[in-house]
Amino acid sequence: MDRDNNPFMTYSFEDGNYEEDNDTYEINNYDDDVGLTTGQTNYQQKNLANKYAKKNLLQRIQDSSVYASVSHVFNLMRGKDDTPQPSDSFRYIQLNDPVTNSLGKYTHNRISTAKYNVFTFLYKFLKEQFSKYANVFFLVTALIQQIPGVSPLNPLTTILPLSIVLLVSAVKEIFEDYKRHCSDNDENNRKIQVLVGSSFIVKKWRDLHVGDIVRVENSSFFPADLILLSSSEPDALCYIETSNLDGETNLKVRQGLPETANLTNAEAVSEIRGVLKSEQPNNSLYTYEGVIELNGKELPLTPNQLLLRGSQLRNTKWVYAIIINTGHETKLMKNATEAPIKQTNLEKMTNVQIVFLFVILIAMSLFCSIGYFLKDFATFQEFVFQEKLLQKFTDIIYGFFTFIILFNNLIPISLVVTMEFVKYGQSVLINSDIEIYHEETDTPTQCKTSNLVEELGQVEYIFSDKTGTLTCNVMEFKMCTIAGKSYAKEVTDDKRIVKGENGVEKGYYDFNRLIENSKADMSVNVIVEFLTLLAVCHTVIPEQSDTSPEGYIYQASSPDEGALVKGAASLGYVFTTRRPKSVSIRVDNEEKEFELLNICEFNSTRKRMSVVVRNPEGQIKLYTKGADTVILERLSGNNPYVDYTLNQLEEYATEGLRTLCLASRDIPEDEYIRWNKAYEKAATSLTNRAAELDRVAELIEKDLFLLGATAIEDKLQEGVPDTIHTLAQANIKLWVLTGDKQETAINIGYSCKLLTEEMSLIVCNEETHNTTKEFISNRLRSLKESMPAYVSHRNFQLQTPMSKIRSLIFGKKDESVDLDDIEPLALVIDGKSLGYALEPDMELMFLELATLCRAVICCRVSPLQKALIVKLVKKYTNSILLAIGDGANDVGMIQAAHVGVGISGVEGLQAARSSDFAIAQFRYLRKLLLVHGSWSYHRLSKLILYSFYKNIAMFMTQFWFTLDNGFSGQTLYESWTITSYNVIFTVFSPVVIGLFDQILNSRMLDQYPQLYKIGQKSEVFNIKIFWGWILNGFFHSFAIYYMTKWIWHESIVTASGYSADLWMMGIVMFSVVLAVVLLKAILITNNWNKFTTYATAGAFAAWIIGLPIYGWIAPSLFGISPELIGVSLPLYTGLMFWVSLLVIPVFCLLRDYIWKYYKRFYKTESYHIVQEIQKFNIPDYRPRMEWFRKAVHKVRMVQRLKRNRGYAFSQNEGGQARIIRAYDTTQIKPSG
Question: Facing residues of 237 across strands?
Answer without folding.
Answer: 255
